[in-house]
Amino acid sequence: MIRSVNIYVCLIARVMLMLTVGGQCLLWNGDLFDLKRILNNSSQVELNLKLFESSNKGKKKPLLVALAASITSAIFVCGTCCYFLWRRNLREKGILRKKKFREMLLSESATNLAKPEHSSNKGQEKKSDIELKFFELHDLKVATDNFSLDNKLGEGGFGAVFKGQLPDGQQIAVKRLSTQSRQGISEFKTEALLIAKLQHRNLVRFFGCCVEDEEKMLIYEYMPNKSLDYFIFDESRKSLLDWKKRHEIIIGIARGILYLHQDSRLKIIHRDLKPSNILLDEDMNPKISDFGTARIFSGNQNEAKTLRVVGTYAYMSPEYALAGLFSVKSDVFSFGVMVLEVISGKKNRISHDSDSPPNLIRQAWELWNDGMAFELIDPTIVDSCTNEEVLRCIQIGLLCLHIDAAHRPTMSSILFMLSNEATVPSPKQPLITLTSKLNTTETTSSSINEVTITAPDVR
Questions:
Q1: How many alpha carbons lie under 13 Å from residue 266 in its C-beta half-sphere?
Q2: CB 402 within 8 A of CB 430
Q3: Hey, which end of the chain has fewer CB within 10 Å, N or C?
Q4: Can you spell out the DSSP letters for 368-431?
Q5: Can you tell me the mean pLDDT for 436-443?
Q6: Helix, strand, coil abundance in the chain, percent, nearest 5
């Protein structure tokens, strides 16, 4: 490169000499250095040239610098191109994956997703009936301050729930499915599609979902007073719910279940009714939530069977826990357990230890049978409750726990008995020794506790 420059300079110098010395061309073969003086008989021309030194040492250094710069520039350009191509490819794959999942959600009816085994296809709704709003991940990050711990409301087997606020001021609760969650894609689809069809004052309001990158989230209305178990099982907070409010909560839950079983467009079995799935709004009105394990029945279907028993053991009906049979009466049983818990402020704890205290069902039945049902009542509501009203509720709760599903009342009759002074039938002894009848595995930290039926041991 340097040698070529020297050659060009020499040629220019020769032309200039030809013009200044009368067209004569003076040639030399020596190396060119900084100064050269050329003399002529008629005139003297002095040509000063500043040239690069043509030694090997002088040539190598600029060449190496130029070569290194060229290689560095090439690597930088190639790396930048590869990075942007990778990001573009990744973005396109993410958009495609999100698009496919959205199309899958919108193309499948909730009936197909939640259909129990051996059920018919009757009663399915048109695909156009499904209205599902999709949120962008970026917007949810902004709403929840990038899912900060300060906005975390709680956590279960599905993942964490975060409080957020949309640009219009609407407060939301974002249920973020964990990658390690036991609640799989089937439960996610069921809940997203199913609850999008349901609207009732005693059901939590669903806003939409987010499916982006590896994230799967469900967006609900924000419930400022958390869940029912947050109050009734806490010694410092249970006094905040007097009997009047607890009675209203019991009736509200009954109305919500009746809507699911009878009054909605779909006949829905929740299968995981419990206080932690009953949320409370600013006025302490109850709203049923968590429909990941719900199932839909066709109009003429009354019962279904499954090999995968899901739910929470303490609230399971005997036929469901032992044989996988479920129906609307399975939810009735769960409602009965909750009624006793709301009245007593105690959990229905399940234990395999024969020396442990009796569970709530057994305790309630024995007190009722001995004419001492008042001892079941939470001491914090004794002064605020009406004896006749609370005893009626205990009696209804025990009716819901009948060992034979056919003899349990329907939610419509339960609501009628709760709201009126109608005669309530005498309850029969419930199954109070279910813990000894099957081997189970249960994960108490999860909101979806699977019970694997291995070998029922009837004694």
A1: 27
A2: yes
A3: C
A4: HHTT-GGGGS-GGGTTTS-HHHHHHHHHHHHHTT-SSGGGSPPHHHHHHHHHS-PPPPPPPPP-
A5: 40
A6: 45, 15, 40
Q: Which residue has the tokens 């499904």?
A: 130
272, 290, 331, 378: the catalytic one is 272
399-436 b/e (C-beta count within 10 Å ≥ 16 → b): bbbbbebeebbebebbbebbeeeeebeebeebbbebbe
Active site residue 272: yes
Is 308:285 a contact under the CB 8 Å cutoff? Answer: no
CA distance 23 to 16: 10
Rounded-to-integer distance, Cα 5 and Cα 75, Å: 28
Q: What is the pLDDT of residues 161-206, one digit of tens each?
A: 999 999 999 999 999 987 765 556 777 877 887 888 888 999 999 9
Kindly report, residue by residue over 327-371, the tens digit of the pLDDT: 999 999 999 999 999 999 999 987 655 555 668 999 999 999 999
Helix (H) or strand (E) holding 79: helix 56-107
- Residue recorded with tokens 């060119």: 32
- The string of DSSP letters for 303-372 reads EEE-SSEEE-GGG--HHHHHH-EEEHHHHHHHHHHHHHHHHH-------S-TTSPPPHHHHHHHHHHTT-
Residue identified by tokens 């999709």 is: 134
Structure tokens at 415: 């609501």
Nearest Cα to Cα of residue 294 among 199, 194, 227 = 194
* Dist CA 400 CA 269 (whole Å): 16
- Where are the strands (E) in 191-290, listed by range? 206-212, 215-221, 267-269, 278-280, 286-288
Rounded distance between C-alpha atoms, residue 233 and residue 224, angstroms: 18
* CA distance to 226, 270, 289, per residue, from 284 (Å): 9, 22, 15
* Mean pLDDT (whole number) for 432-436: 53
pLDDT given at position 265: 82
pTM for the full predicted model: 0.71
pLDDT at 386 over 50: yes
CA-wise closest residue to 359 among 374, 376, 378, 371: 376
What local confidence, expressed as pLDDT, does residue 52 receive? 47
In angstroms, the CA 143 to CA 310 distance is: 33
Rounded Cα gap, residues 164 and 167, in angstroms: 10
Does residue 443 contact residue 272 with C-beta atoms inside 8 Å? no
